[in-house]
Design goal:
Blueprint lengths: L1 H20 L2 H15 L18 H45 L6 H19 L4 H15 L4 H16 L1
Helix pairs in contact: 1-2, 1-3, 2-3, 3-4, 3-6, 4-5, 4-6, 5-6
Length: 166
């Protein structure tokens, strides 16, 4: 994601700089290069008519606006997916806790132990740290899971996977 945003921001900045310079040749070069670069990935960014080397500031402004719209759309989609992942993670943790609380096969001590484990994992998921740091913290719980029932271990491993992929 960050590579695309960096690229889009760089090209938007280029458009702004070329527009400030107001150099016709630079405008034409920028328009041609940006058309070629984004014609397959951004809808309607190509030339409206088949003009070649006959562009104006308005053409570059249009490209810049389309790049900004594409960047904003991309950011919004990314943020929505992050929100949905967070909501799904919360639902998954809560449903796992409910299943464990309602378990007929686990002792009260074991239920509390697994709930404490889930609470600790949930706290790690809410920390604003890098994935590597989360993995270091979560890895400690992977050893504990090897001693758990397969159904409990699978659910917690799935939760851990979601945490690391967010």
């Amino acid at each position: 994601m960050s590579d695309l945003l960096i690229l889009l921001d760089k090209d938007i900045k280029r458009c702004e700089d070329v527009l400030k310079m107001n150099n016709y040749l630079e405008i034409v070069i920028a328009v041609e290069e940006l058309f070629d670069k984004y014609k397959g990935s951004i809808k309607d960014i190509g030339s409206d008519n088949d003009r070649v080397w006959n562009y104006s500031k308005k053409d570059l402004e249009n490209i810049m606006n389309k790049l900004k719209l594409h960047r904003d759309k991309f950011i919004n989609e990314y943020n929505e997916s992050r929100i949905n992942s967070s909501v799904n993670l919360k639902i998954m943790i809560d449903s796992t806790k409910d299943e464990i609380k309602n378990s007929k096969t686990l002792s009260k001590e074991k239920i509390q132990e697994v709930l404490d484990l889930l609470n600790s994992i949930e706290k790690i998921s809410n920390e604003k740290i890098s994935i590597d740091e989360k993995w270091i913290k979560l890895r400690l719980y992977m050893n504990l899971l090897s001693k758990e029932d397969v159904s409990i271990a699978c659910k917690i491993i799935n939760i851990t996977n979601i945490i690391l992929n967010n």
